[in-house]
Specification:
Elements (H helix, E strand, L loop, with lengths): L11 H7 L5 E6 L5 H10 L2 H4 L4 E6 L5 H12 L6 E3 L4 E3 L5 E6 L16 E4 L9 H7 L11 E6 L6 H9 L8 E2 L6 E7 L5 H6 L3 H5 L4 H8 L16 H4 E2 L9 E7 L6 E8 L5 E9 L12 H12 L6 E4 L13 H7 L3 E4 L4 H13 L9 E4 L3 H6 L5 E2 L2 E5 L6 H10 L2 H4 L27
Parallel strand pairs: 1-7, 1-9, 2-5, 2-6, 6-7, 10-16, 11-14, 13-16, 14-15
Antiparallel strand pairs: 3-4, 4-5, 8-9, 11-12, 12-13, 17-18
Helix pairs in contact: 13-15
Amino acid sequence: MGEALCVWEPQPRQAQALACPAFELFYGGAKGGGKSDFLLGDFLSGVEEYGEAWKGIIFRRTYPELEEIIGRAQQIYGQYPGAVWTKGEKVWTFPSGATLRFRHLDSDLDVGGYQGHQYTWIGFDELSEFPSPGPYIFMLSCARSAAGAPCYVRATGNPGRPGHGWIKARFIDIAKPFTIHRDPETDLTRCFIPARLEDNIRLITNDPEYEKRLALLPLHLQKAFRLGDWDVVVGQVFLEFRRERHTIPRRPLDATWGRFAALDWGYAKPFSLGKYAVNPDGRAIRYGEWYGCGSEYNTGLRMGAREVARKWWSQCIDDGITVIVADPACWSKDDDNPSIAETFEAVGFKMVKANNDRVNGLQKLHDLMQITGMDGRPMFLVTENCEAWIRTVPNLTADPRDPEDIDTNLEDHAYDETRYALMSEYIQNPRRLGRSPVLRASKPSGTPFDPMKWA
């Protein structure tokens, strides 16, 4: 772009993001990091080079939220000679023929209106306001160019918002910041570039009091919005959870502990199977799992119940587990085919209908996380190999319409399975399980292991 057309100059961190060649890029973290400016500047960088082949679109979650970025675009693009803003269509048209549209997606179903559209540049301003990845994933299929221009998807956002979980899984957890991750299935690339208030020199200079106003927020909000901490979840339900306190190493269990399994079934959504051990004092340990999650956030393996049942039986038999407490929906039948429960019973399991009281189930988990035993450890513990549980349950937030329940739009499957287990009679009376069969798993030599000192 010639000097006469230089209507916006990136700051150093924005320049790093502009230079990133990844197909998908998530830019952001803290408030005040210059995220919207980055989106507008990133699109602008291709206006002259690709001309009319450069077709872009920016999304916000709701129509009112578009106003801010539209206003900022008028400040920047309004300086571009020959650029025209068409208010009714909400589109900027540049002399080269490049166009940028501004749209909102109130509902996940609204993406259907973009079936067959094609864009070389797709932007999501405040992607973290989208509670599910559906709209974002759908629009990836619209990134194409018959003219041969390169295609990019760019997004911004903050931690602690409704989309925190799936964005963290897609961008934050897969690789270190600034590192381009190549998807092993699609060979497409994505990258996370963090932006903090310190990276927005103009804002710090022009509004030096902004940092002080952020300091007025509660500590957890300061971590999310000031520091861009993706390990903080605003509205987190299980505030009592501490990894160092509630997780323990996986070790052999004493044969006197009762064992059973719990199931939250899913096909298009993940299924969650957990192994539980309980002693006469009522301490419960979730010590194994099979979490049926696909490659995308909150999607299932689409594996049939018969195959799942057989594989789970092979994982349970050495532990002496023959009982599964399951979601009552597993007994539902729509036709002459066996129910989920009947399918599991066919391989040898005893299936028990779970108590599906959501309010008391949530309280039960709270109680067992907080109450301590004689050894000073909580009465509910999770072993470190239960990675799906540790990833999903501590990050759950409350239902915005019912503070006494979990937001079911989130990845709550391991939580539901745990709720079924803890509400079962086997927690109160593990003797109902009987003595475990002789374990075929090898036991450590030397002094017998005391599970009460499992730490």
